[in-house]
Design a protein that fits this description.
The protein has about 140 residues and is mainly alpha-helical. The protein has one domain. Helix content is about 50%, strand content about 0%. It has 3 helices and no strands. Bound molecules: zinc ion. Zinc ion binds next to loops. Zinc ion (ZN) binds next to loops.
Length: about 140
Amino acid sequence: MFPIYVAIVPPPARPPLTTMLWRGVRRRCAWCGGRGAFFTGWFHKQDTCRTCGIGWHRGYEGFELGAMTINVIVCFGALIVGLGVGVAITWPEIEVAPLLVILGAVALLLPVIVYPVSYTVWQAVDLAMHPPERGDGTPPFR
Ligand SMILES: [Zn+2]
């Protein structure tokens, strides 16, 4: 009888969470760090990373809800901080009209600016919670 050898392929090494988050903040693929990995435009994204092939939502229902939550946290946080700074600067006679104009502009523009970053940051959080498996695309094995 001949011995049977079985190849054991190690699971993909997950990058540290801080590395994946930093990649996400820079709109890169959280897994491989590929530049412009998912977004071909500000709003247009591909299903898989152009560098490593991993799917950005990997078939999860509600992936967009996590990305939207990141967007809401960033935008509401900025509005709360902006409101606090505006009130503190103009105290005791608070200038309401300039505050409304500035914070209204922030409320309209910031979600658009943060849109792609919220997806890549949420992808980093998602990859930390659910590391990719073989059916999730072709992540690089390290
Ligand atoms: Zn990638």
